[in-house]
C-alpha cells in the first residue's frame, strides 16, 4: 500500500456528482445490500470514523439502524467527503498504523478504504442514477489492488460479495468492481 492522497479529491468530487444525480432515495444501487438511502446512511455513518482514523483519533460505534439521510444529506455528504480528503491529504496520514474500530490497521489500508468508498460506492450511486462514473486509471488501479488484497477477508465478513469474474483485459475499474463483488456488466 502506498500514499494515494492525490487520488482522493477527484474521486470525492465524482462521488458527489453521481450522488446529486440520483432520482430517488429508494432507487436500487449497484451494491446488492443497499438502496440509495441505505448506501448514503452507510457512507454518512462510516465517513466520520474513517476521518477520525486519518486524524489519529479514536471513534468506534456499531452500525445498526442508522438513519442519517435527511433533507440536508447532500450538504452532509459534501462536508464529510471534504473532511475525509483533508484527513488523508498529507503523506504522513498514510504511514504507520491507526486505530479503526477495535483494530490497529496500517494507515495506508484505511486510506485505501476511503478511496474504495468513493470509487466503489460512487459506481453504485452512478448505477442508481443511470450515469457513468468517471474514474482515473490510477484510482481504479489502487482500488483494484486494495480489493484484491482485502478480498478474502472482506468476503468472509460480508463487506464484499462473491468475486465476479472479469477478463484481465477489461478496464481497471471493471476489474476493481469484479474483485469487490460487483458485476460491471449487469
From TrEMBL:
Signal peptide: none annotated. SUPFAM superfamilies: DinB/YfiT-like putative metalloenzymes. It comes from the Bacteria. InterPro entries: CHP03086, DinB/YfiT-like, Maleyloyr_isom, MDMPI_metal-binding. One of its GO terms (molecular function) is metal ion binding. Residues 9-126 form the Mycothiol-dependent maleylpyruvate isomerase metal-binding domain. It holds the Pfam family MDMPI_N. This is Uncharacterized protein (TIGR03086 family). It comes from Amycolatopsis jiangsuensis.
